[in-house]
């Protein structure tokens, strides 16, 4: 009996401990969660407010000299692409005249050999034409000389025939006239043949001279297949439109024969891309805070100098972006192409304004409002926003408390500040009109551009 009582007492204490643990767990998980929900409240802050856009970019030199391959646009080689057979490492410091790259000569050498064979054949043809001309004209000259002697012989016969019968004299006269006409015909034929052979010789010699000049051009162009530095500097690889760098093994068009560049590192720019959602906020002249990823402790400033009018789609992305160029105000030897930069564009900066977390803003029928600590749904007139916060122009004051989350039983809360709805709708209407005006101008400009193109095409016809 004593053991049974002792066992029951032990069970009693275990049950008591389990109940206390369950009560503690309930309090910890439920009450703490409830408390945490009620603590999702923030205050309206007052102070300076900045609208920022942060994008990554790549350092480039504003001014640079291109290292060019040979100029093959004359078409003597009839080659459209060149392959880079060898190229010095990017970042190499070179002096004027130093070796930079070697281009693949195999295709050009084949064209040169074929051209030299054609020159040999053309030289043989020139010599053949000269010999044919000499032989043919010599035969014609001999024939002219023989006819002149024959004509002189007939004249002598005519002079000696004064005692001959008239018929005989007439016969000699006729032969003399016939020989004279034949001589004149032969002289005209000789002149025509001589001009023909001169033209023939001129044509084959002109072709040979042209081929020789082309050969000289080819030899001179081939010298450019060994590329050397035009001046002192640091070699930076040329970047293709797809973002890939030209390096050993790359091919390039003869119409874009820049192999690398020698940048002027005294003035740098950061080339970046802004997505189509934010590009309307970016303007020339805006200030930019620039950081270089390789040197996180160094900060620089810059200014936007160019914003692309037409967007593009970068490789391996679906988003449309616009190119933006930022000129760095400072000059520092640590900045080298193509270092990665972090660019913070200051779209606008305001002082002494009220702002709250953007997560506290809710909307009903396009009317923004917040849940206040006074258990009301307060209508607010909003201003500019950045990534995390938004300006409250009307409806709240500095120090007011609002919920980040939707409070419990907030469906029964009253709406306050309904007089601000008129202002909100008026602003929305003005914004819509501005957007429609911009679209109208864009359509009008597009129509005018089409008309100008049609007029230019009509003028050419």
Please explain how this structure is put together.
- The chain has 461 residues and is an alpha+beta fold.
- The chain folds into 3 domains: 56-98 and 233-349, Beta Barrel (Elongation Factor Tu (Ef-tu), domain 3); 106-223; 350-441, Beta Barrel (conserved putative lor/sdh protein from methanococcus maripaludis s2 fold), CATH 2.40.420.20.
- 41% of the residues lie in helices and 32% in strands.
- It has helices at 2-38, 106-160, 166-223, 421-460, and strands at residues 41-43, 45-68, 81-87, 93-94, 99-103, 226-228, 233-234, 236-237, 251-253, 258-275, 287-292, 295-307, 312-313, 320-328, 340-357, 362-364, 367-371, 376-379, 381-385, 389-394, 401-403, 414-416.
- The strands form 5 sheets. Strands 2-10-14-12-11-15 form a 6-stranded antiparallel beta barrel. Strands 6-5-3-9 form a 4-stranded antiparallel β-sheet, with no helix packed on it. A 4-stranded mixed β-sheet has the order 16-17-18-22.
- The longest helix is centred in the middle third of the chain and has 58 residues, at 166-223.
- The model is unreliable at 1-6 and 26-37 (pLDDT under 50).
């Amino acid at each position: 009996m004593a053991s049974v009582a002792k066992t029951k007492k032990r069970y009693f204490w275990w049950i008591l401990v389990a109940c206390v643990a369950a009560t503690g767990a309930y309090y910890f998980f439920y009450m703490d969660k409830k408390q945490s929900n009620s603590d999702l409240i923030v205050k309206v802050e007052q102070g300076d407010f900045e609208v920022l856009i942060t994008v990554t970019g790549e350092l480039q030199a504003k001014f640079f000299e291109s290292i060019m391959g040979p100029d093959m646009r004359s078409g003597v080689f009839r080659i459209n692409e060149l392959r880079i057979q060898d190229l010095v490492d990017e970042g190499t410091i070179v002096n004027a005249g130093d070796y930079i790259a070697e281009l693949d000569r195999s295709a050009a050498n084949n064209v040169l050999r074929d051209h030299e064979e054609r020159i040999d054949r053309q030289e043989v043809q020139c010599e053949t034409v000269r010999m044919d001309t000499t032989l043919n004209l010599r035969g014609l000259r001999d024939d002219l000389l023989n006819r002149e002697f024959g004509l002189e012989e007939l004249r002598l016969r005519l002079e000696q025939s004064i005692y001959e019968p008239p018929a005989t004299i007439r016969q000699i006269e006729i032969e003399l006239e016939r020989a004279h006409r034949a001589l004149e015909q032969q002289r005209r034929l000789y002149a025509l043949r001589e001009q023909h052979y001169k033209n023939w010789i001129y044509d084959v010699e002109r072709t040979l001279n042209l081929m020789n000049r082309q050969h000289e051009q080819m030899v001179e162009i081939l010298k450019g297949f060994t590329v050397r530095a035009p001046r002192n500097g640091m070699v930076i690889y040329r970047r293709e439109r797809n973002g890939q760098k030209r390096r050993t093994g790359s091919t390039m068009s003869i119409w874009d024969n820049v192999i690398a560049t020698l940048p002027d590192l005294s003035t740098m720019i950061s080339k970046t891309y802004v997505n189509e959602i934010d590009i309307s906020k970016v303007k020339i002249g805006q200030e930019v805070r620039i950081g270089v990823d390789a040197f996180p402790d160094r900060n620089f400033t810059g200014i936007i100098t160019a914003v692309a009018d037409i967007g593009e789609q970068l490789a391996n992305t679906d988003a449309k972006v616009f190119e933006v160029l930022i000129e760095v105000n400072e000059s520092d030897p640590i900045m080298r192409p193509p270092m990665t930069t972090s660019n913070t564009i200051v779209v606008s900066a305001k002082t002494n304004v009220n702002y709250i977390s953007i997560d506290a803003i809710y909307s009903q029928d396009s009317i923004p409002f917040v849940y206040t600590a006074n258990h009301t749904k307060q209508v607010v007139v909003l201003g500019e926003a950045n990534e995390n916060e938004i300006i409250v122009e009307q409806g709240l004051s500095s120090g007011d408390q609002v919920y980040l989350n939707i409070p419990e039983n907030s469906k029964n809360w009253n709406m306050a500040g309904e007089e601000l709805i008129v202002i909100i709708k008026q602003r929305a209407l003005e914004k819509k009109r501005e957007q429609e005006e911009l679209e109208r101008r864009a359509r009008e400009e597009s129509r005018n551009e089409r008309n100008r193109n049609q007029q230019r095409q009509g003028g050419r016809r």
